[in-house]
Fold this protein.
Amino acid sequence: MGELLKVERLQIAFRGDQGETISVEDVSFAIQPGETMAIVGESGCGKSVTSLAIMGLLGASGSIKRGYISFLDTNLTAASEQQLRKMRGSQVSMIFQEPMTSLNPVMPIGRQIEEALRLHLKSSRKEARQSAIDMLRKVGIPRPETIAKAYPHMLSGGMRQRVMIAIALICQPKLLIADEPTTALDVTIQAQIIELMQTLQAENGTAILLVTHDLGVVAAMADHVAVMYAGQIVEAADVYTLFRSPRHPYTQGLMNSIPRLDAISGGRAPAIPGQVPSLHEMPTGCRFHPRCPYAEASCRELQPELMETGDRHRVRCWLTETSEADQIAVHRDTR
Ligand code: SF4
Ligand code: MG
């Protein structure tokens, strides 16, 4: 199967008061049609920036310095603003954490769905109106004919996120980028929105790029996962491999910080000590070395590449060159 999206050795820089900063460095991954791929990491790790770059929405201060993004064999890095605009909403659409910022506050929500449709598919007003109501019903909005006339502020957060999903999916895009789609919602609504995205994905074969810090959402939705740290992918694998046998010390730390049932009586799960480095002061060598319990002298000097260790399993750590990573994994399990 061919790749739907391919990101290759991407480097993204932002211009600011302190000069240019590199916020994404050497990021490569691919998404197959219909697949859900998650990018997971702490805030500021570059995961949202990567997804905005795919949409061509880095803004005036951001730019792709190196590498490329291709979607359906079109090089997006070389595409004109007009080509990108045509692609956004029809082939690739995006939903964000807070729908209020992307919904128009003074337009009834039915009209907003119609506009998306008319813009890209040139439907008639009547067809668009009917499709908007059908779509609202599909995303689980009760009494869609009435709700179509409502304004965004009249709806709850969960309902607004359903409307965003309706807008994002109305043109049947091949890729949906969802940046923290459930973070602002309470747990019950989160589960409903995840289920909704999965149902619609199964119906339409839409691929999803999920951007999140929430490993619970990753476990529920993703087929493949890339873990980002300080602007780089440090590990990527299928979801089972990543949760069962993470090999990068940072991924292992993330997994250890998930509260487990057996840990509840024992108090809080351990967090990773130390802090995410600032973009202005990246550590030399391996960017995780100041926080890594296994760091050796060489880790401070030499930056590891993302190394292939198995089928679509890649790890950016010197330990994977030896068998020590396996010993760490065992050590972690028996702790
Ligand atoms: Fe830790 Fe060294 Fe691996 Fe970096 S390369 S994660 S410092 S062991
Ligand atoms: Mg973000």
